[in-house]
Amino acid sequence: MTRAALFDVDGTLVDTNYLHVTAWWEAFHQAGHTVPMPAIHRAIGLGSGDLVAHLLGPGRDREQDAEISATHSALYATYFERLPPLEGAADLLRALAGRGWTIVLATSASGPELKALRRALDADDVISGTASSDDVDEGKPAPDPIRHAMDLAGATSEEAVYIGDSVWDMAAATKASVPAVGLLSGGIPRADLEAAGAVEVHESPAALLGRLDSGVIARMSP
């Protein structure tokens, strides 16, 4: 029996959301835009192009989009060697793998950024695949990344669960008909995650690890 645990990475397994906020704030500032940090924080989880469009709107100078994204990438890359995994993240993945779950990452990160996240997480021995932003036409909140992750795992929507920290994660999983488990480790309020479709919410990867014998994962366990 196939069971697939699909995971977001930023803010879910690695403690990077506020690093992204700082890098995006500076990238917007260098391009002449003042974007409040709370607004940037709520947009984390979108792909770069979607995030810029979401925060600057349709009337922006679109010729700046690529430069803003590139500046963010360059600034964020300065943290690559010290990205901190969240407590219990790798243990959670290994515990699920030990119970027969197939582990697949579904993330907006790609390229060197994704390599740095996986290096920080240090759990490649139990990660079966990765659905990155390079693999789909539309990123979260579209269901494409979740569906691609299910394909990699060889699982149906009835056999998968998605764990993430943003409203975009919850919306994408819900659109893919996959139960969405929210984590508060990314800084998004419980009520917002639940409103976006979370079937349950936990404080952190470590908290979820301690509750594997209850909730949606226990009910679905092979």
Structure, described:
The chain has 222 residues and is an alpha/beta fold. The chain has two domains: 4-15 and 84-220, Rossmann fold (3-Layer(aba) Sandwich); 17-78, DNA polymerase, domain 1. It contains eleven helices and six strands. It has helices at 17-30, 37-43, 48-56, 65-77, 89-98, 111-121, 144-153, 167-175, 190-195, 205-209, 215-220, and strands spanning 4-7, 102-106, 127-131, 160-164, 180-183, 198-202. A six-stranded parallel β-sheet has the order 3-2-1-4-5-6. Helix 6 (111-121) links the parallel strand 2 (102-106) and strand 3 (127-131). The longest helix is centred in the N-terminal third of the chain and has 14 residues, at 17-30. It is globular and about 50 Å long. The model has no long low-confidence stretch (mean pLDDT 96).
Overall pLDDT metric? 96
- Low-pLDDT segments: none
Number of strand elements: 6
Any idea what the radius of gyration is? Answer: 17 Å
Assign the CATH superfamily of the largest domain.
HAD superfamily/HAD-like
Q: End-to-end distance, in Å?
A: 6 Å
Q: Note the total helix count.
A: 11
**The CATH topology of the largest domain:** Rossmann fold
How helix-rich are the residues, as a percent range? 40-55%
